[in-house]
Write a structure and sequence with these properties.
Blueprint (H helix, E strand, L loop, with lengths): L4 H23 L6 H8 L3 H7 L3 H8 L1 H4 L11 H17 L2 H12 L3 H28 L9 H18 L6 H13 L11
């Protein structure tokens, strides 16, 4: 018996996303084209364009599993430890093979407002929002001075990690992320090192 259309569509959609992830992992994002995705997923290009307007949109959707932040954490640990963990997770992502994808999307975002919006909403925004919650907890607990502009703090924290990625400077390392975090945290008016760091 033939599989109903919607089920076939969902199967094809999952094959497209899986093929995109595998092609990126094997060849890097610059070598992944809609033609290659279609061939790998065994679908026509029109099937891809039915769901995604551009190649970048397919790439972003394919990264959902990679970008998953997991469950919200309890804040029994210090805000300092939670924020450091956020930056380390970002560093691990950006220093992996997927960092090249983010770099490519950042470059594309300079000329494509939709890519810029998607990059902020799906890649950077959720990480910043999670860190913002931890910073607010830090203010409530007295780890961070109450007059610190937390939006500036988030930009400061993530800016240091992203700069290396965007400029292609020194590779991102956990030691480098920790050093940057320690310097940035000292500027937040943090009152010493809280327990659990």
């Amino acid at each position: 018996m033939a599989t109903p259309g919607p089920k076939r569509d969902l199967d094809a959609k999952e094959r497209i996303l899986r093929a995109t992830r595998e092609l990126i992992a094997e060849h890097g994002p610059g070598q992944v084209t809609v033609n290659r995705i279609a061939a790998e997923a065994r679908v026509g290009k029109q099937t891809i364009y039915r769901w995604w307007p551009t190649r970048s949109a397919v790439v972003l959707d394919s990264l959902d599993e990679v970008l998953d932040l997991g469950n919200p954490r309890d804040h029994w640990v210090s805000a300092r430890a939670a924020v450091r963990d956020d930056l380390r997770r970002a560093g691990l992502l950006l220093s992996s093979k997927w960092g090249a994808v983010v770099r490519e999307l950042v470059a594309e975002a300079q000329v494509d407002a939709d890519v810029a919006r998607q990059l902020e909403n799906r890649v950077l925004g959720p990480r910043k929002a999670r860190t913002m919650v931890s910073l607010r907890v830090g203010v409530e607990r007295g780890e961070i001075a109450p007059d610190v502009d937390l939006h500036v703090a988030v930009d400061l924290l993530y800016g240091g990690v992203l700069t290396g990625l965007v400029t292609g400077g020194a590779p991102i390392t956990m030691a480098g992320v920790d050093q940057f975090f320690d310097l940035a945290w000292s500027g937040l008016g943090a009152r010493g090192r809280a327990p659990g760091v």
